[in-house]
Amino acid sequence: MPRPLLALEGVSLASPEGRVVFQDLDWKLDRGARWHLQGNQGTGATALLRLCAGLARPREGRVVLDGREIDLDALDHPFINAGDLGWVPTDGGLAVNLTLLDNVALPLRFSRKVGREEAREEALRWLERAGLGRSAASRPRLPADRACWMTALARAGAKGSRLWLVDRPAGGLDPESRKAAHAILEEAARDPETTLVLVGGDWMEDLGAGLRIEDGRLATGSAP
């Protein structure tokens, strides 16, 4: 039986306020699976993504990514170090002291070992796909806007990420940005080796099978 790309094993997680988000959760994410997390904010969708990305410490249990447990104390995981994780948080998670172009280009240089000029050319190509070509030299705005989220999406695409963890964009997207984002995600979904877990609105529904969080458990349909 093929090894899953990611597994949550007996995971329990509580919010900073002490509310139980997940209790003894077991979940396997197969390679090439595509899921669309449905539900309103506050249901635990963002917490699930952060667990999968190695950004949240479970109270109990463990998270295994590509056959190796994520250790938050070590901050060292081959899958993540290689640039195979495409993390797209709601605020984009950008470095505010860098331009949008450098936010996309630098991960290519450090994780994919791409030369400076090649990385900048590839970064610009993806920013143009995201509708941000003219804003490439700008720095991220605070509070985060749609450009920050679209830049993070471009970053995931430029790296050729094998696992996309995509949270809903802060403030939503205008129709043009939504169309561009859908095209990028749709292209990723066509690759049988790429795995996606998406949180967002109805415009994402055709990109993955439905996944719901109910009372700290995951209720799923069949994978697409």
UniProtKB/TrEMBL annotation:
Keywords: ATP-binding, Cell membrane, Membrane, Nucleotide-binding, Transport
Protein name per Swiss-Prot or TrEMBL: ABC transporter ATP-binding protein
Pfam families per the UniProt record, alphabetical: ABC_tran
Subcellular location field: Cell membrane
Membrane-traversing stretches: none
Family stated for the protein in its record: Belongs to the ABC transporter superfamily.
UniProt cross-references to InterPro entries, sorted A to Z: ABC_transporter-like_ATP-bd, MetN_ABC_transporter-like, P-loop_NTPase
Gene3D superfamilies: P-loop containing nucleotide triphosphate hydrolases
Signal sequence bounds: none
Topological category with respect to the lipid bilayer: Peripheral membrane protein
Lineage, opening ranks: Bacteria, Pseudomonadati, Acidobacteriota, Holophagae, Holophagales
Record-annotated ABC transporter domain positions: 6-223
PANTHER family reported for this sequence: AMINO ACID IMPORT ATP-BINDING PROTEIN (PTHR43166), GLUTAMATE_ASPARTATE IMPORT ATP-BINDING PROTEIN GLTL (PTHR43166:SF9)
Tagged with keyword ATP-binding: yes
An example Gene Ontology molecular-function term: ATP hydrolysis activity
GO cellular component: plasma membrane
